[in-house]
Amino acid sequence: MNRTTRTMRLFPLLAAVSLAAAGCTSSKATGPSTKTADPNAGKAEALQPISNTAKARFEDALKAFDTQKKAKAIDYPSLERKFQSALEADGNLAEADYNLGVLAERQGKLTEARNHYKTALTKKPSLRQASENLAVMEQNAGNVAGAVALYQEVLQRYPDDAQSRARLAEIFRQQGDHTKAMDLTRAALMRDPQSTTALKVMIRSYLDRKQLAMAKLVALRGVKLDAADPELHHAVGLILLQEGDVDDARLSFKKALEVREDYVPSHVELAQLALAAENYPAAEQHLRRILQADGKNAAAHLDLGVAYKGMGQFDKAMQEYDEAEKLDPELAAVNLNRAIILHKVKDAPERASELYRKYIAMAGGEVALPAEAPVFALLREVEVIVNAKREAKFAEEQAKQMEELQKQQQAQMQAAEKAAGAANPPATAATPASGTGPAPQVAPASGNTPPAP
Questions:
Q1: Domain map of the chain by residue range?
Q2: Which of 57, 144, 286, 336 could form a disulfide with 359 if both were Cys (CB 3.0 to 4.6 A apart)?
Q3: 10-19, 242-251, 261-270, 373-382: the lowest-pLDDT one
Q4: What is the mean pLDDT of residues 331-335?
């Protein structure tokens, strides 16, 4: 599913005079928007002025955020406490609820973010940025119908709103209706020529249709309008990547991270480029940032395993493959990468062969993979090893059997010889027991017997 991204910025305050009447300015979460007033909302909200204590605490929270942003070290818990403190001073400060929603969403706490946005809208229905953020969240969750309904609701209240038109354009782009998407982006730009949201939809539409020159032209225009938007630098990187300019693409992705270090899409692209260049330590760094934002990202765990394998940390690699499989049992590449380690490192060719075959099956079978896919060569290689080991084992077993047979034969021969010796002892001269028998006589040479005495 295509995810709709946006630059989420905290809601700032207007001058103190304006605050006394209505609170805060309209949001710039997705870039400047047309400030179309809602008469009914304005009258209702003017009846609930914000206390000076709440205003001071709110401003303090914003200053803390700006300081942390410049230091590139966002302390979300401390910021949440500061905005919560502003709410405790005055529960009507809808903008504090909105900013708490932004902070929660940046940390991946989507349910909490939704609740804050809805609370902000309850307190201040004219806070249309909260409606837009809710719509984007519904869109990213796959509830396109719910997102469209929210965008249309905003347009009913604010017929000239550019942002909602741009968001609707993105939905049509994702559905493949580029004509409708471009019509809506142009309509949005007519109402707000500086709508970077509309420009980004236009860039993606041109990229989808391989119109790289037009995409680059719009992207450079967007960067001039808002150089602090990481999505625009990222878009330039994607265009350069499609043009084959890997080095400059890498620089654009890094520029996006300079603007916002936790911008996940650029970490993803840089991780892939690092893996392709076999720069495994760099890949590990980007993949860890991705998992910091989304610990249940199975593909990131798989790629981290590949990085560990490249660095020779095979046990860590196997752990990451196990984690990836737990998160997504249908991720076929887990079997391929695990098999390679078992084949090349762990001397377990039989198990490796099973996993190679499992990968092929999960990938759609042999017909679904190109004939030159590496897995086929790996499978043939491991099968040779399996057969060689099988033959060696058979020969070893045969040798052991022959040795055992020889031992048995020798034992039988020795036993037979011993039995034969016991039954037939060697012959010897017998001596009379009493010793009284006549003494043997010696015959003379003549043969005559001598006379008795």
A1: 1-156, 332-410
A2: 336
A3: 10-19
A4: 96
Contact of 238 with 249, CB cutoff 8 Å:
yes
Q: 233, 252 in Cβ contact below 8 A?
A: yes
Q: What is the residue type of 28?
A: K
The class level of CATH for 1-156 reads mainly alpha
Give yes or no for residue 452 having a pLDDT over 50. no
Angle at 439 between CA 433 and CA 441, to 5 degrees: 145
